[in-house]
Amino acid sequence: MMRSRIVILAMLVLLLSLAGFGCAKKAGGPGDGSGTSWEEQERARLEQERALREKMGQAANELAQMINFAFDSSNLTPEARQILTRKADIMKQYPQIKVIVEGNCDQRGTAEYNLALGERRAQAAAQYLSNLGIPADRLSTVSYGKERPLDPGTGEAAYAKNRRDEFRATY
Description:
single chain; cell division; CATH 3.30.1330.60; Peptidoglycan-associated lipoprotein; elongated; cell cycle; Pal; alpha+beta; signal
């Protein structure tokens, strides 16, 4: 009997203490002087987040534009330099974006030679971006050599498409 009274008393104390430590008031609710409800603030926050995702998506699309190379070369063409300059401007605008530069080659030559050439191509683009002020820790490179052709054909038009750097944006 005495034990049950102690248990009931302990539970009563526990309930009262929990009631005294209720949830903290959320900021931005009705009556906080801000003039907007929590729902309105949440809608505004979600709209800002959506707009940022849309801008970042557009930036990622622009960053994905490929550059091409001449046969057996890792030298950047004037057109490639223009494209890389636009990429650098975007990366400066969005410092959270990192880019992986993927070097590719056409199907001619040995696998080893093309891996090395693909790496030189990726490094050339990354170095150009770095020279334009993009920190090296936001850039990485990988070479796929001749393993990932865009066009599996064997003519010069197909080979020209496959001599490229691709760019993959990460966050």
